[in-house]
Amino acid sequence: MPAGSMLMYDAALYGLLKCNLPNLETAPITAVLLSAAHIADLASHSVFADITQSEITGFDYARRLVTGGRIVANIGGPSFHSDTIQFGNPVTLGPAKYMAFIFGMPVGLKANSQLLGIASLAESGVVEAQRSNFALSPPASGWFQLARA
């Protein structure tokens, strides 16, 4: 299923502009699923500890390493893409409303691991899987794009 475009957390955007963000094409990035109770706060959330309480748990859920990270040159501005993120097939996952990207390996995330961005998985409500495929594909324009004004 295609996910919505990702919004970058302010701290990650500042890091990108200051050239001190880890390399998006080589740094390990983990995808985590967050519940509908999560309140996205782009301005004040900056590290994993800020969203840990909202990560879904149980069933077959496991964090996933984002593979195939690449920067693509587009007419409208450069964008960040990855391979489809496969959470399982078949898999049972509890309700999730968001997916967040965090710098680090899935089993090595620490409280101070830096957040990159967050994408909404459902315009209204939540998504879940009951012994079915659960895979998230980046939008055609990438997870996020630096647009030209």
Report on the architecture of this protein:
This protein is mainly beta and 149 residues long. It has one domain. It is 5% helix and 36% strand. The protein has 1 helix and 10 strands; from the N terminus they run E-H-E-E-E-E-E-E-E-E-E. The chain has one helix spanning 10-17; strands at 6-8, 29-34, 64-65, 70-72, 79-81, 85-96, 98-103, 115-120, 127-136, 144-145. The chain has a 5-stranded antiparallel sheet. It has a 3-stranded antiparallel sheet with strand order 4-5-10, with no helix packed on it. It has a two-stranded antiparallel ribbon with strand order 6-9. The mean pLDDT is 93.
The main sheet orders its strands as 1-8-7-2-3
Task: Assign the structural class, choosing from mainly alpha, mainly beta, alpha/beta, alpha+beta, or little secondary structure.
Answer: mainly beta
Largest sheet: 5 strands, antiparallel
Helical region count? Answer: 1
Strand and helix map with partners:
Blueprint: E1 6-8, H1 10-17, E2 29-34, E3 64-65, E4 70-72, E5 79-81, E6 85-96, E7 98-103, E8 115-120, E9 127-136, E10 144-145
Antiparallel strand pairs: 1-8, 2-3, 2-7, 4-5, 5-10, 6-9, 7-8
Summarize the entry for a quick read.
The protein has 149 residues and is mainly β.
Throw out a few tags for this protein.
149 residues; three-stranded antiparallel sheet; mainly beta; 1 helix; five-stranded antiparallel sheet
